[in-house]
Amino acid sequence: MLPESGSVLGVDVGWSTRQRSSAACRLDWDREGVRWIIRRFTADDADRRAGLLAVAGPHHLLAGAFDGPLRGDLEPIDSYRLAERRLSERPIRDAIGKLAQSNSGNGRLLNGATNACARIMLERGSLAPAAHQHAIHRFAIAEAFPNSFLGLMLVDPAPFKGGRGKRSDRYYLALAEDGTLARLLAHHLPHRLMEQNFGSVTNHDDRAALVCAITALGVASNDYTAVGDGDGWIILPPAAFIADWARPLVASWNQATPRAVVTSAS
Questions:
Q1: How far is CA 197 from the centre of its chain?
Q2: 258: pLDDT confidence band, cut at 50, 70 and 90?
């Protein structure tokens, strides 16, 4: 059970040193309500550090989730991980898109930028010790992937495969409009007023950072689905929020590779 009040951090990781393609979201709650703040920044070392520390502020963070390849030793991964293979298998890929490989050119850049963000937050301190089942570090850091996180909650992904803009934005808008994101937040933090509206978040990177913060909320409450192995676990929605079409696929991961995916619920 989550404490009466607290904070978690979500980070959408980018590697551009010129464009503000990274974003951090701190999600806070108390007995009355839930709220968040979001800030964008570049991958320039000084700007990245300033952005992350400004969002985190003086708050104790129960968990941090980062949108990029992340292993507990914070070393380069440079391999095609089990988590990536499972989330890129044909039924999932056809429905909601595939996950980039950590050993691709972009994958290596993203892994390096993710490690840099995680190091900043670990050096800052004030991260809670890890208490979730799939901990990769002694402190509560975890890997998020907003596209799969959102896509696995869609009742029917087919209408959102094409169209303008990024696929994850279409998923986000659909789940905001049908109330799924609000229900997920209420699942983790019941009987509280949402002081902001999911529909008010319009920037792609801001949306991704907010989804990462919700991922971190699942880690903090030990209520999530995970896929992976010793090379990293990607945190996905709680079992109750996985759409019916995806549940047999998630179950098949267990059958194909025992203990490669485990559902944990508080």
A1: 19
A2: very low
